[in-house]
Amino acid sequence: MELYNKEQKEAITFNGKHLLLLAGAGTGKTKTIVGRAAHLIENGTAAEKIQILTFTKRAASEIVERVKAGIPGRDAQALSGSTFHSWCNQLITSFPNLFGAANYTVIDSDDQLSLMKMACGNEKTGYGKIRIKPQQILDLFSFARNTRINLTETIRIQLHKGKDDSETNEEIEELRPVLELLIKEYQTLKMQQKYLDYDDLLLVVGNRLHKDEEARNILSKAYDYILVDEMQDTNPLQWYLLAPFEKICKLFCVGDDAQSIYSFRGADFQNVHSFTERVSDSEVKKLDKNYRSTQKILDISNWLLQKSPIGYNKKLTAHRGPGKTPVILNVANQFEEANYIAEKILKDFREGGKTFSDFLILSRSQYYTKPLQAVFLQKKIPYETYGGRKFLEAAHIKDVLAILRVINNPLDQIAWMRYLTFIHGIGEVRASSYLREILKLDTSKITGEALSGIIPGPEGGKIKAYYNAVNANKNNVKLAVSSLFKEMELDLALKYAKDWQEKRKGDFPVLEILAEHYSSLGEFITEGILDNSTGLGGTPVLEGSKIKTTENKDHVIISTVHSAKGLEADVCFVLNVSPKTYPSSYSLGSTEEIEEERRVLYVALTRAKNELIITRTTDSLNAHHSNAVTPTQNEEINSAYFLEGLPESLVIQERPQGSFSKSQDAKKANKIDLDFGFDFS
């Protein structure tokens, strides 16, 4: 039985209707959610009537498995944890008559772009009159739906940085009607081919629940409690989805307004900050005892929040005692910074008994860490950094999935085109011609034989063989995948000859392992697209979303701050906390954006367990102070740098020993960067 502190126990045993738990960094948030679910089950709530929602499949699986591990027998076996999108897909599938979209195919971002390009190719939409790329149109449309604001305001926010002047208004009035036509055409193409994109999943469920009392009554019988993790990251569309559940069941929402850092994805800070105003019969409780960091690390984090004009009313206290004073390292340039970090890691590794995985390096962008990665390669420090395409987004995997997709949904034209053009000798023009003939068939008449009748010669023979390999095993997803791979292996090896053995071939056993957890092609395709970076139980199926320099599990992690949620380390470096970076110069002029930047830094600082090292450049600091001309101007400039006025007692100021300027060693590191061929963008 896990031990809980007084505040955690009060949240776990809460007897009211709806609760918002404000859980500060490192205060045992996940432990408390696990305790709440276990408490409900142990006190008579059926596990299947509890739904856990969070933002990654890994986090949801971790919570569910911890609950099951703590409850003997089968009482907790039916507990479900999902992402918002995956949950909505499950609802659509489980209640096909209620939501009416059970046989639709969920499409990923590449497919969405293909459809939008088709929409832009329709001359009636007037696309040629505007200078905006199809991907930008998709981004605008998604932002509008996720923030639930109109297209005019979306254009103003996304393309004109919120400006409101006559010239901007004129441009918007010219752009808006064309965008409306393009979006309408995109929606039509989706309906014709029975597609749902990511945002549709939430809208299909949310719209039905808002408009249909019968739907609410049905789900009220299915759910007693919904437990929401990372509430501060929810956006207005997700709140729109959750709002009806205020009447359907009881909400237990856990979040931290001080860690809301995803407004660029539509996350709404007010979903936490205004919870009690929005949800009747709701209460707020807090967790503020930190179990991760030492007090001196928390002191600088608390100070940062206290300087904000927003009333967070949050002060974390450490369970683990005072600890080491954080260090601010003032460096001349990035190479001095990189060499200092590398030398400290190597010294602590060789002499201090630390492992490489005891170190975490956080930056605003991966681009900034390019010199650091080059130095690590030179000094043979193993590291892992987030970036790149996810597993199921890899080209060779999408080639295989295309065949599964057309059998699951014969109207899936994007998948048909990928399937047909995979065959050597069939280009876009021939594939389009064949596809027109295929779509003339009744879907029940599409077979391997029928396809080879439309497509002559050896190409048709391959099309038939691939189709039959899946169709004969469509009720056994793992067997369908393995059978198809056997048929396609030679052609895949020829298409990807450059790196087939080294990189791609080994992915297919992983794909088979992933497939065996699904009972239907549709479930496998959709769930895979919704969360394709992890496998069942949260186990990574491939480091496809990361760049690794070693297979050794002991490695330094280099991450952007926005990818750092859930990460922690004994020693944490926060890079380039300099003027015009914290906050970014792009945010100046917007109080909301500046305060989100403050929260980004707060998240970074609170990842450290025992040592916190903050770097900044002396040039930027000198330029910041030399800009002051009058006291008034100085006050304005100072307010735009988060570490201005930091009490001396909270940190130790240091300079690297020796010179690590852009020397011959640094040039060699750059050469290694190029030789290894890493994409650091």
Can you walk through the features of this model?
With 681 residues, this protein is of the alpha/beta class. The protein is built from 31 helices and 18 strands. The protein has an eight-stranded mixed sheet with strand order 14-13-15-12-16-17-11-18. Strands 3-2-6-7-1-8 form a six-stranded parallel sheet. The protein has a two-stranded parallel sheet with strand order 4-5. The radius of gyration is 27 Å and the shape is globular. The two termini are 47 Å apart. The C terminus is likely disordered.
Fraction of helical residues: 40-55%
Number of helices: 31
Poorly predicted ranges (pLDDT <50, ≥5 residues)?
532-547, 629-638, 659-681
Q: How far apart, in Å, are the first and last alpha carbons?
A: 47 Å
How many strands, what sense, and barrel or not for the largest sheet? 8 strands, mixed
Explain the layout of strands and helices.
Elements (H helix, E strand, L loop, with lengths): L5 H7 L5 E6 L5 H14 L7 E5 L2 H14 L9 E4 H11 L1 H4 L5 E2 L2 H12 L13 H14 L3 H10 L5 H27 L2 E2 L1 H14 L1 H10 L2 E4 L7 H7 L2 H4 L1 E6 L14 H4 L1 H4 L3 E6 L1 E2 L4 H12 L10 E2 L8 E5 L2 H18 L7 E5 L6 H9 L4 E4 L8 H14 L4 H10 L5 H13 L7 H7 L2 H15 L5 H19 L4 H5 L2 H9 L5 H10 L15 E3 L7 E5 L8 E6 L16 H15 L2 E10 H9 L4 H8 L13 E3 L9 H13 L5
Parallel strand pairs: 1-7, 1-8, 2-3, 2-6, 4-5, 6-7, 9-10, 11-17, 11-18, 12-15, 12-16, 13-15, 16-17
Antiparallel strand pairs: 13-14
Helix pairs in contact: 1-2, 2-3, 4-10, 6-7, 6-9, 7-8, 8-9, 10-11, 10-12, 16-28, 17-18, 18-31, 19-20, 20-21, 22-23, 23-24, 24-26
